[in-house]
Amino acid sequence: MRLRQYLICAAAIAGLSLAGCSGTNLVPNTASGGSSGNKGGQPVPSFTQFTDIPMPSNSSLDMDRSIIFGASDAWHGRLVLNSGGTQAQMYDFYEREMPNFGWSKVTVVRADISVMVYDRENRVATIKLTGGSFAGSVVDITVSPKG
Predict the structure, then answer these.
(1) 18: confidence class by pLDDT, cuts 50, 70, 90
(2) Which of 20, 23, 34, 41 pairs with 123 at a CA distance of 20 to 30 A?
(3) How far is residue 114's CA from residue 111's CA, in Å, rounded to a whole number?
(4) Phi, psi torsion values for 66, nearest 5 degrees
(5) Local confidence band at 22 (pLDDT 50, 70, 90 cut-offs)
(6) What is the pLDDT of residues 67-113, one digit of tens each?
(7) Which residues make beta-bridge pairs with 14?
(8) What is the C-alpha end-to-end distance of the chain, expressed in Å?
(9) What angle do CA 17, 21, 24 make, to 5 degrees?
(10) pTM of the model
């Protein structure tokens, strides 16, 4: 019985690992518009409401860990993304794309847990990058008023 549980667990881990090997398309989502509905008629969270922060196309918003106040380019709060890209890919993505959205680099620390700090007008964005449980990475973006 115990051997069967180990085999099932090993098969699940192997399947998830292989799923993480798919190619990633790290292109910022710059489209505008609202959220669209799914087949059940429920709204699907959309990154298009965040026009001032680059969002990798292979990521999903963790609604349970995110909290946003405000709208458009005046929002502040915390976005947590589960990304299919590795931590290194996400670091390179944000280092390349943040200046394209008007953000200036303040400081960065590239390590097992990377932290990137940018500012723009009267706001500061802190991006924390950690490895995911099985594959991919977690991107934690906190935007707050400067000062």
Answers:
(1) very low
(2) 34
(3) 5
(4) -105, 145
(5) very low
(6) 999 877 889 999 999 999 999 999 999 999 999 999 999 999 999 99
(7) none
(8) 59
(9) 135
(10) 0.70
Q: Which tokens in the block code for residue 127?
A: 């991006």
Nearest to 118 by CA among 134, 107, 133, 130: 107
What's the CA gap between 27 and 146, in Å, rounded? 28
Residues 6+ apart with CB under 8 A from 54: 28, 29, 30, 93, 94, 97, 98, 100, 101
Per residue in 41-67, pLDDT tens? Answer: 443 345 557 789 999 988 999 999 999
Phi–psi pair at 51, nearest 5 degrees: -85, -5
| Helix, strand counts (H, E) of the chain | 2, 7
The CB density around residue 72, as the number of other CB atoms within 10 Å, is 9
Which residue type is seen at 134?
Answer: F
By residue count, the chain amounts to 147
Q: Which residue shows structure tokens 């099985």?
A: 134
Distance CA 115, CA 64 (A): 22
Please state, as a whole number, how many other Cβ atoms lie within 10 Å of the Cβ of residue 11.
10
